Amino acid sequence: MSANETVNKVLTVLAVSGSAYFAGFTASTSILMIPVLPLAPAPLAAKQWAKMYAIGVQLAPGMGLLPGLLFAYLAWANDAGSLAPRGVAFALAGLFAGSNVPWTLSTMVSTNKALQAIADEPAATTAEIEKDSVKKEKREEEVKRLVGAWQTLNALRGFWPVIGTLIGGAVAVGLI
């Protein structure tokens, strides 16, 4: 086995495992974190969501970018430009593995902004809402609705790197 073949195999393992890790990271938020938020009062749930979101913003872009770049290199190394099946499959794997950012920007921004606005409300505004039972109930319903929408959108977002993992894995084991 040549040095290039060894490097490409190692990069394939890193790309596939990185994409799988990222898929799990993304899905775990919807499966583990979001379901417990409605147990807290709306203002606290929004703040907890905002903290989780801030952590995700710091970690997720790089976690999605790395396997995407590795798949892009593998596509190039496997002649994607000449439409070689392995190269095209690696290119598709890279597109799927790195699709979280476009998905977020196209589908989740309004929900993110609405939840962040509630989390950032001044304490006086929150206290005023908490004193009025009608406003409080309305806020509880709003946060529950927004968190539920975010959970669904995030769960869907987690499928993109899963698809990238499956395509990259299929190439890795010689199915493509």
From TrEMBL:
Main location group: membrane
Domain of life: Eukaryota
GO CC list: membrane
PANTHER family: ANTHRONE OXYGENASE ENCC, DUF1772-DOMAIN-CONTAINING PROTEIN
Keyword Transmembrane: yes
Membrane topology: Multi-pass membrane protein
Name of protein: DUF1772-domain-containing protein
Localization of this protein: Membrane
Transmembrane segments: 20-40, 52-76, 88-105
Family matches, as InterPro entries: Anthrone_oxy (IPR013901)
Keywords (A to Z) from UniProt: Membrane, Transmembrane, Transmembrane helix
